[in-house]
C-alpha cells in the first residue's frame, strides 16, 4: 500500500436473525487443495504485524458474545466445536474467524452502478480445522448486506445470525474435523465502506465513485463489504468473480478474464468473469465497474498486461503504460513475476491510497511511476507471500518502499548511500521517529514508520550483508516462501542463512528497537564512511 492522504471512518450497528427454511440458491463448486505454509489442524498460530503512515487508533469492534480470550483459544481456532469469532490477531480481535480455512471464493453477483443495488451468491470451499468438528462458525460480512439463504455442505443452515459484521452460522449437522467444507451464502444490499479499513487511514470496502462507477478496495478490510469471507491475510485462497452489469458498463478484477462457460446475460446486461488461480489474502481481491478504457501490453515472457483507465484518469495513462518497464526491473531484483496476468486499475479518483490488489493494483488519481514500482513490488512482497499477523506488515511495506529507492537509483541515478545518510542526519536525534518499531509496532501504528524508517532499515541491512548476499535475499525470500504464510521470525532465520551468520542482533537493532540503533549497527559497511 502507498498513501496519498488520510480519511475518517464509521461503523454500522446491526443485528438480525434468520431462520432456516428459506429458498436456497446453490452454485457449482470445485475442490481446491490447501496451501503450503498455512495453518493445519492443531498447528499453533504465530504472532506478527504490518502498517502505513498514521497514528490513528484502530476503532474497537463489538459482538453479541464476548470475544474468546487469547488464553482460552485452542490452536485450531475453536473452543470445542464453536469456531472463534476472530482468527487470533490481537491488532484486530474480530478480524477473520477460527475453526476452518478457506481454499476458494467464487462470487456470482449482479450490480447496477446507478442504483448501487447489489445481489450475489458466494460459494466458499475449504476445510474444517477444529479437531472436534464445527457445530457453529463465523464469516465476516458487512451489516449492509441482507442474507436470505445459507447452505453448509448442501443442506440449509439450522440457524444464521447476522450480528453487526459477523455472520454466525449453525449448520444442520456437525462439520467433521478435517472434512471438506462448502458454504453458499445468498444476499443483497447496497454495499458501502467498512469501518477501520485502509490501515486506520479511513474507510476501505465498496466505493461508489464520483463518476458513477464502483470499486472494491481497502486494507486491512474490504472484502467483507461485498462478499462473506474469512477476512485475515493468514488465510489466503483462490478467488473468482462473475458479475452481471447493465450494457455499456465493464468489469475488471484479479487474474485473467474468463470467456468460456459464462451464464447467459439477461436482456440489457453483460456478464464478466475474472479469476486468479493462486491463493491471495482477501484484502488483495478487488472489482472495478465503470466505463473505462482497456490498455493492453505484455511482459517479455508473454504474460498479458491488462489495465483499466477510468473516464477521468487521462492523466494516469503514462503511469499505466509504465507497468511493463517497472515489472521488468523488479524481476531483476525479485525474480520472475509471480502471476499469469498483470496490469493496474486507474479509476481517476483520489482515494487517498494505492493498494497492491493481486495482479492488478489500484492507484489513486495522479499516481507516480514510483508508486507503480511500490505496488508492483508487493506482488512478490505481500501478495505471493502472506503474513501471519498484521504485526509483520514490515515484510510487505518495508520492502515495497525500498523498491521505490531501487527504482530511483535505476532510472534517476540516485546515490542511495547518499540518500540514506541525508535521511539519517535529519532523523537521528528525533526520538519520535524511532519510537515505533517496524515489527510488532502496536495496533494503530502498523501503517506509519514502515514507509520512511522502513527503507532506511532495509538499506542498512543491504550495507551490512553486502550486495551479493542482499540481492540473493531479495530473490530467495519469495522464491522459497511463495504461497506460504510467514512471520518475522522466519525472515530472521532466512536472512541469517543467506548471510551465513546470526543476523538477529542487527535486525533487532533496526527493526524491533524503539530508539536509534547503537553502533556498530547504526552505520554498517559503506554507510560508515
Structure, explained:
This protein has helices spanning 317-321, 323-334, 369-377, 379-384, 394-412, 416-427, 431-435, 453-465, 467-481, 488-499, 504-512; strands at 2-3, 15-19, 78-79, 82-83, 100-112, 117-128, 137-140, 145-152, 155-156, 159-163, 166-170, 180-189, 193-194, 204-208, 214-217, 237-246, 250-253, 256-258, 269-280, 287-290, 293-298, 304-309, 342-346, 353-354, 386-387, 485-486. It has 529 residues and is α+β, with helices and mostly antiparallel strands. The strands form 7 sheets. An 8-stranded mixed β-sheet has the order 9-8-12-6-5-16-19-18, with no helix packed on it. Strands 13-14-15-20-17 form a 5-stranded antiparallel β-sheet, with no helix packed on it. A 4-stranded antiparallel β-sheet has the order 2-10-11-7, with no helix packed on it. A hairpin with a 2-residue loop joins strand 10 and strand 11 (166-170). 54% of the residues are buried. Residues 5-72 have low confidence and may be disordered.
Number of helices: 11
Helix content: 10-25%
Largest sheet properties? 8 strands, mixed
Mean pLDDT: 88
- What is the CA–CA distance across the termini? 33 Å
Overall, the morphology is globular
The fraction of residues in strands falls at: 25-35%
Number of strands: 26
Supply the helix-strand structural class: alpha+beta
The main sheet orders its strands as: 9-8-12-6-5-16-19-18
- The radius of gyration is 22 Å
The low-confidence parts are 5-72
Describe the secondary structure blueprint for this structure.
Layout: E1 2-3, E2 15-19, E3 78-79, E4 82-83, E5 100-112, E6 117-128, E7 137-140, E8 145-152, E9 155-156, E10 159-163, E11 166-170, E12 180-189, E13 193-194, E14 204-208, E15 214-217, E16 237-246, E17 250-253, E18 256-258, E19 269-280, E20 287-290, E21 293-298, E22 304-309, H1 317-321, H2 323-334, E23 342-346, E24 353-354, H3 369-377, H4 379-384, E25 386-387, H5 394-412, H6 416-427, H7 431-435, H8 453-465, H9 467-481, E26 485-486, H10 488-499, H11 504-512
Amino acid at each position: 500500500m502507498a498513501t496519498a492522504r488520510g480519511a475518517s471512518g464509521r461503523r454500522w450497528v446491526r443485528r438480525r436473525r434468520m431462520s432456516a427454511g428459506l429458498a436456497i440458491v446453490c452454485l457449482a463448486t470445485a475442490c481446491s487443495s490447501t496451501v503450503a505454509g498455512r495453518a493445519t489442524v492443531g498447528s499453533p498460530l504465530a504472532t506478527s504485524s504490518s502498517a502505513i503512515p498514521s497514528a490513528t487508533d484502530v476503532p474497537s469492534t463489538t459482538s453479541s458474545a464476548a470475544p474468546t480470550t487469547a488464553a482460552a483459544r485452542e490452536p485450531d481456532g475453536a473452543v470445542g466445536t464453536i469456531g472463534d469469532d476472530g482468527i487470533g490477531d490481537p491488532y484486530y480481535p474480530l478480524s477473520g474467524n477460527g475453526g476452518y480455512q478457506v481454499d476458494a471464493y467464487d462470487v456470482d453477483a449482479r450490480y447496477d452502478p446507478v442504483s448501487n443495488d447489489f445481489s450475489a451468491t458466494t460459494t466458499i470451499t475449504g476445510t474444517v480445522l477444529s479437531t472436534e468438528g464445527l457445530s457453529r462458525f463465523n464469516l465476516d460480512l458487512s451489516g449492509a448486506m441482507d442474507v436470505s439463504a445459507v447452505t453448509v455442505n448442501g443442506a440449509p443452515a439450522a440457524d444464521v445470525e447476522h450480528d453487526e459484521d459477523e455472520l454466525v452460522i449453525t449448520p444442520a449437522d456437525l462439520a467433521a474435523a478435517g472434512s471438506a467444507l462448502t458454504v453458499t451464502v445468498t444476499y443483497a444490499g447496497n454495499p458501502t465502506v467498512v469501518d477501520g479499513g485502509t490501515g486506520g487511514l479511513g474507510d476501505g470496502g465498496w466505493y461508489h465513485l464520483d463518476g458513477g462507477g464502483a470499486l472494491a478496495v481497502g486494507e486491512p478490510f474490504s472484502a467483507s463489504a461485498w462478499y462473506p469471507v474469512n477476512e485475515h491475510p493468514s488465510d489466503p485462497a483462490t478467488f473468482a468473480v462473475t458479475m452481471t452489469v447493465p450494457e455499456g458498463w465493464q468489469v475488471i478484477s484479479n487474474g485473467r478474464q474468463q470467456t468460456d462457460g459464462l451464464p447467459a446475460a439477461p436482456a440489457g446486461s453483460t456478464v464478466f468473469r475474472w479469476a486468479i488461480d493462486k491463493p491471495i489474502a482477501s484484502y488483495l481481491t478487488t472489482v472495478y465497474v465503470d466505463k473505462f478504457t482497456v490498455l493492453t501490453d505484455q511482459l517479455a515472457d508473454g504474460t498479458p498486461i491488462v489495465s483499466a483507465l477510468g473516464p477521468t484518469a487521462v492523466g494516469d495513462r503514462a503511469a499505466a503504460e509504465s507497468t511493463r518497464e517497472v515489472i521488468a526491473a523488479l524481476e531483476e531484483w525479485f525474480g520472475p513475476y509471480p502471476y499469469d496476468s498483470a496490469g493496474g486499475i486507474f479509476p481517476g479518483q483520489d482515494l487517498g491510497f494505492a493498494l497492491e490488489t493481486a495482479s492488478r493494483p489500484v492507484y489513486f488519481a495522479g499516481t507516480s511511476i514510483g508508486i507503480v514500482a511500490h505496488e508492483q513490488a508487493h506482488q512478490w512482497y505481500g501478495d505471493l507471500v502472506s503474513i501471519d499477523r498484521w504485526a509483520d506488515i514490515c515484510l510487505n511495506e518495508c520492502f515495497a518502499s525500498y523498491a521505490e529507492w531501487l527504482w530511483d537509483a535505476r532510472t534517476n541515478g540516485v546515490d542511495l548511500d547518499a540518500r540514506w545518510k541525508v535521511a539519517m542526519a535529519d532523523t537521528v536525534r528525533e526520538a519520535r521517529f524511532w519510537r515505533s518499531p517496524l515489527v510488532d509496532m502496536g495496533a494503530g501504528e502498523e501503517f506509519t514508520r514502515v514507509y520512511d524508517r522502513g527503507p532506511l532499515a532495509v538499506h542498512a541491512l543491504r550495507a551490512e550483508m553486502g550486495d551479493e548476499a542482499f540481492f540473493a535475499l531479495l530473490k530467495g525470500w519469495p522464491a522459497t516462501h511463495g504461497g506460504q504464510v510467514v512471520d518475522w521470525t522466519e525472515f530472521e532465520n532466512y536472512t541469517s542463512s543467506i548471510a551465513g551468520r546470526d543476523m538477529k542482533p542487527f535486525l533487532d537493532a533496526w527493526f524491533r528497537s524503539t530508539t536509534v540503533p547503537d553502533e556498530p549497527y547504526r552505520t554498517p559497511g559503506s554507510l560508515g564512511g
